[in-house]
Each structure stands twice: as structure tokens, then as C-alpha cells.
Amino acid sequence: MHAISEATSWLGATPKALRHWEPACDGTYRIYSDADLGRWARSHRFSTPPPTPPWASPQGELLRRHRASISEWYEVTASRQLILARMYVADERFGAVYGGQQDYLLELVEAQAAAEGLDVKNPAW
């Protein structure tokens, strides 16, 4: 399936690790995201640097909603969230889902991951 092979390529995960996606994939590219997250992101425009730690800030709501939307598919770690947030910035198809806030989401995720002690230069799935 296209979505599985694309996810495998992006995430560095094996098809076995992504087996939970197979029933949900129909062979076309689909963005898995809580629709509410996209609406919320579009309604909030953040321009300030991410606070430290982001999780406890008002901007942290974007971070929390993002993590919750991912948790529907698999266990979410700071490292996984960072890998996915980087993918959202690198792949323009995610821009519409995150209301143009994918760059800011990445800043929040990186700041939170660093606050949790993650080596943000070397995240692992």
C-alpha cells in the first residue's frame, strides 16, 4: 500500500511496526489527523517563541492536541512526535491540516522534547 510504504520511508519504521495502519489505509495518501486539531490550529495564530516548557503554556494546547491525535494510532513518545512534526514541515500536504501552523508546531515539539531530555538532533522512532 502506498501510504504504508510512504510512512515506512518517512519514519524509518518497518512495515511490521506500522501494521496497525493497514486496515485504515485504502491505498491512497491520507492525512491522519484529528479534524478538530486542524480547525483549532487555524483559529490560533502564534508568533511568539515557544515558552519553556511549552506543555504548560497556552500554546501547549496545540502540542497536546497534536499528541492526542497521534495517540489514536500508536504510543506517542517525544521522539515520535518530533519525527512526525518534522515530516509535517517537510511535506507540504500537511499545511492545510495544521492551518499553516506546522512550523510553529515543530518549534513547540522541539522545545518540549528538549525539556523532556530528548536529544533533538537524533530522535529515534
Automatic annotation (TrEMBL):
It comes from the Bacteria. It holds the Pfam family TipAS. This is TipAS antibiotic-recognition domain-containing protein. It comes from Corynebacterium sanguinis. Residues 61-107 form the TipAS antibiotic-recognition domain.
